[in-house]
Write a structure and sequence with these properties.
The chain is of the alpha/beta class and about 450 residues long. The protein is built from 11 helices and 19 strands. It is an enzyme of class 1 (oxidoreductase).
Length: about 450
């Protein structure tokens, strides 16, 4: 009967509503303990596209807390069509941004730094919750972004090329630096704020606009950071597309990497500490166990750790393995898990060679009081990494120095020193202010 159908429909709607309510109540963001997430503008469902306005109609992904594997909140990723739309809007925004004098651009970057300062604890807490690193490191990531903003503000009044002596009378030879345009930034899960910050602050100061794709497993951090930056732009009546974002997976990342309209930048790093949080995902736990088994099969001896901890989340024991050959395949494999391979060497040359024989070339360190060894380590036959330390760990880097690696790690540089030059294009300009037309090298046509 009609009445019976209405009753069935009402019951079905009630069931759907209950299922939705249960799903929402299961999210950490709805628990009082995590109410601070809403201070960052986050909600149960979050748009994963920003190009002056918020949107996204692609796949809906759930972000999980690696400390307990509970769902935090959801993000709707970008489609390829939305990526293309965002690129177009970002390129259009560049036309306005490039006309703004560099010191004025620096003022906007200063405001971004101040906005991040106001949210540093809550944003650091989000990094810890979503990525899994300990709280102090989460806050440290945001502090790096703030520090680079400060650095970029000063840079905004110093960007420039030299005036070079011309061999021709009545001529001036100068270097002119101009922005490259649109900078695409792809970041990994292990530094979901800092790597974007290094690139974003300096790229903006140099007159570029940015398009960011964060890791698909840390989308809430990407959304929260973008909300902070977007608010500053909007308060200054600037196009929000100056700092665009498209959350997504491999499809968006591949599109960015192949897009010739972008200068594509990215970063990655691995760290070993004595105080640490959970691994980022369940898959990382599987990789940890697989690496230990491979190490044993390749002749290694487990002397410490090697177990998954019996507690919620993706916690594993710090692990030390000895007895492996320096060229064992597992030693050359980057696993992003807390496993330390201890290798015995006989000579300095042998140790240096083993350091350099791997494909990665980001960071390295030596502990010694031998000053001769220090300078050999820093010299042409020493470490071939982009970061070469002495008596400090390989993790962490000051923002004033250029950050980046060699070999398969890359070759570009971010953050300090003269890394700003990669965000700009250089022109050598000759200006003739004389009444003659002399040629270079003293050439004369008779």
């Amino acid at each position: 009967s009609v009445r019976h159908l209405r009753l069935l429909l009402r019951n079905k709607l009630a069931l759907v509503h209950c299922q939705q309510s249960a799903a929402m109540s299961g999210l950490l963001i709805n628990q009082p303990k995590y109410a601070w997430l809403k201070e960052l503008g986050l909600s149960e469902d979050n748009p994963g596209v920003y190009n002056g306005s918020w949107g996204g109609s692609g796949e809906v992904v759930t972000s999980y807390c690696p400390a307990n594997n509970e769902p935090i909140a959801r993000v709707t990723q970008a489609t390829l069509a939305e990526y293309e739309e965002t690129v177009q809007k970002t390129r259009e925004a560049w036309k306005m941004w490039a006309d703004i004098p560099a010191p004025k651009r620096g003022e906007i970057v200063r405001q971004i730094g101040d906005a991040l300062r106001k949210k540093i604890k809550v944003l650091g807490s989000l990094v810890s919750l979503e990525m899994g690193k300990i709280y102090v490191e989460g806050v440290g990531e945001v502090q790096e972004y703030v520090d680079v903003c400060d650095y970029a503000v000063g840079l905004s009044r110093m960007i420039g090329g030299p005036i070079l002596p011309s061999e021709r009378p009545g001529h001036a030879l100068i270097e002119q630096w101009n922005p490259v345009g649109l900078v695409g930034i792809i970041t990994a899960f292990n530094f979901p704020v800092a790597v974007y910050g290094w690139n974003n602050a300096i790229a903006l100061t140099c007159g570029n606009v940015c398009l960011w794709k964060g890791a698909p497993t840390t989308p809430l951090t990407s959304v929260a950071v973008t909300r902070i930056v977007a608010e500053v732009l909007e308060q200054n009546n600037l196009p929000g597309a100056i700092c665009s974002m498209t959350c997504g997976g491999a499809d968006i990342g591949t599109a960015m990497a192949k897009d010739e309209r972008l200068l594509e930048l990215g970063g990655n790093n691995a760290i070993i500490v004595t105080l640490y949080g959970p691994l980022h995902t369940k898959q990382a736990v599987d990789q940890y166990l697989a690496a230990i088994e491979q190490a044993k099969q390749q002749g290694g001896t487990l002397v410490c750790g090697g177990k998954v901890m019996d507690r919620p989340g993706n916690y594993v024991e710090p692990t030390i393995i000895t007895g492996l050959a320096h060229d064992a395949p597992i030693v050359h494999t980057e696993t992003f898990v807390p496993i330390l391979y201890v290798l015995k060497f006989k000579t300095e040359e042998e140790a240096f060679a083993w350091n350099n024989e791997v494909q990665q070339g980001l960071s390295s360190s030596i502990f010694t009081k031998d000053m001769g060894r220090v300078f050999r380590w820093l010299g042409p036959k020493g470490s071939d990494c982009g970061i070469v330390n002495v008596n400090i760990p390989t993790s962490g880097a000051e923002i004033g120095g250029a950050f980046g690696g060699e070999k398969h790690t890359g070759g570009g540089r971010e953050s300090g020193s003269d890394s700003w030059k990669q965000y700009m294009r250089r022109s050598t300009c000759t200006i003739n202010y004389s009444k003659d037309l002399p040629l270079a090298q003293g050439i004369k046509f008779e």
